[in-house]
Amino acid sequence: MMDSLQSLETIIYDIPALVNAPVPNVDLVWSATCKILNWTQKRRQTISKRERDWEQRSLDSRLVWINRRIFKQILRLDTFHGKDGSSRRITLCEPLERVAASLWPTSEDVPADLPRRIPETTGFESDLDSVGLSKTLFSLRVADASLAEFLTHPEYAGDLYISPDAYHTQFAEVCLYHCDLASRSKKTCV
User: Fold this and answer.
1) d(CA 5, CA 88)
2) Domain residue ranges of the chain, discontinuous segments joined by +
3) What is the chain's alpha carbon radius of gyration, rounded to the nearest angstrom?
4) Distance from C-alpha of 143 to C-alpha of 148, rounded to nearest angstrom
5) pTM (predicted TM-score)
6) What confidence tens digit (pLDDT) does each residue in 60-103 have?
């Protein structure tokens, strides 16, 4: 397992190369990223369930470091300027943003009584000092605990920081929308 961790600790996302890569390659990178984040989160959960000795704390620290390193490479902060000021949105770097967006329901999947799409940024748009979350971030729900841990701690997230209340409110809004959509289209809520 230590060899696997060493490999994960050295992953570098070459975003300019991904922008020019064929879509199937980007899909594979996105899939692998989600699997890595999911694996590290599940591994951390098994560690936290037991009494933690020095070795387990060391392993947990390495897993946290891997997640933070991945998030720092694949997330970005967009700033939008409007007539009332500017707002910021945390999202995924292109082309990962495009791949994640393709996972959301299309208009033909949406019942007529629901909006055709959820807003690109959820919540708090009128607050000029606020940070919104892109809906595509929620495609990382396999790693929601590690994403929340990263984004809601300014010492880890830096410019990507969002308050815990804002994060959880926005996450809940998108989850409720997703579950409502799934129940109305006879699909199971994930």
Assistant:
1) 34
2) 2-73, 75-184
3) 18
4) 9
5) 0.76
6) 899 999 999 999 999 999 887 777 777 788 989 988 888 887 76
